[in-house]
Design goal:
single chain, about 350 residues, two-stranded parallel ribbon, binds zinc ion
């Protein structure tokens, strides 16, 4: 994502400063449904009203809960490096085509669907492709892990490769694919979604952003998939070697708390920041389709987010350890979501 996130830094800092004295203060610019994460969850999303709001503690695993998936941060990091070595992946570029082929080649053996479409962007017409890998489980319902693979069109004349921004989520999602292929889900189905066109083509606005997510969320709403999705976990910029997940205010409050409780059980609480602010990202169209969503993101990438959307977003700013932390938190969250 681009300037919207830059702008979001201000509410973050404000929230961080104000949190010290006014713990309940919410960012005014945040979504009303997420204005107070500690309040009983209420949603102003029409279709979400049909869903009963669960309590986060209802998802705490019991001794009978099966163990979490085991994933390798080292392997995810190796994939990140190989993937971003394909070059910039902006819309219409050779690197974008290579990225699609790379992802598809690493999903062999899975049920793969390509959501291909053409869209008029702010910078002209482009072909886009969301790639979805489905791993069927034994329970009726779907847990989605998602991340984007494109890089920024406005940075096309630079060496920007988005190691953390796009590369980290692809690296980790492909590690999930490798594990799910060997160990199919015992509970809910798991779908891995590689979105296209997340980045703005000129400047971040509601219209010029998250093109792939908007297209897929609309499809899922029309074909009934949205109602079968129990949770949508978005992974973005999760490879930062100095990893701190935001308390993201557009995320569904109860689901964010399920993720946070998973982190507590793993003694990874120090990687959860108390910065509270709204971020616009691929999760929004799915939230608007009535799906519970979380954006797992670290928007403090280098001092004052210095590496974000710059040519400094390279693999040496990321680490296998951070990918391992994210992998473990996500795996424990999937485990928790399967307790119900
Ligand atoms: Zn970005």
């Amino acid at each position: 994502m681009i300037s919207e996130l830059r702008r979001s830094v201000v509410p973050f800092l404000l929230a961080a400063v104000m949190a010290a004295t006014l713990p309940a203060v919410a960012c005014r610019q945040s979504h009303p449904a997420a204005a107070d994460a500690s309040a009983p969850a209420q949603s102003n999303v029409q279709t979400a009203a049909q869903r009963p709001e669960p309590r986060p503690e209802d998802f705490d695993p019991t001794p009978a809960t099966p163990p979490a998936m085991k994933l390798s941060g080292e392997k995810a990091f190796a994939t990140l490096k190989e993937f971003v070595a394909l070059g910039p992946r902006y819309l219409g570029s050779p690197g974008h085509a290579k990225a699609e082929q790379y992802i598809l080649a690493h999903l062999e053996g899975a049920q793969v669907e390509q959501d291909q479409f053409k869209v008029q962007t702010a910078a002209g017409p482009f072909a886009m492709n969301n790639i979805i890998a489905k791993f069927p489980g034994k329970k009726d319902g779907i847990l989605v892990l998602a991340g984007h693979y494109d890089t920024n069109l406005p940075l096309k004349d630079t060496t920007f490769i988005g190691a953390n921004d796009g590369g980290s989520d692809v690296g980790l999602l492909l590690e999930f694919a490798a594990q799910l292929r060997q160990h199919p889900p015992e509970g809910y189905s798991v779908w891995l979604v590689f979105t296209d066109g997340e980045e703005a083509t000129i400047t971040w606005t509601d219209a010029d952003s998250v093109y792939g997510a908007k297209h897929l969320a609309q499809r899922w709403q029309q074909d009934g998939t949205a109602q079968r999705v129990k949770a949508f976990l978005l992974l973005d910029m999760i490879g930062d070697r100095d990893l701190h997940f935001e308390h993201e205010a557009n995320s569904t409050p109860w689901l964010y708390q399920v993720v946070r409780r998973a982190g507590q059980r793993l003694h990874l609480e120090s990687h959860f920041s108390d910065r509270y602010g709204a971020i616009e990202d691929d999760h929004l169209p799915f939230r608007n389709a009535g799906i519970p969503v979380v954006d797992l993101i670290d928007l403090d990438y280098g001092f004052d987010n210095l590496y974000h959307h710059t040519t400094q977003d390279t693999p040496d700013k990321c680490s296998a350890q951070s990918l391992q932390i994210t992998a473990d938190v996500v795996a424990e969250t999937l485990r928790a979501l399967n307790t119900r």
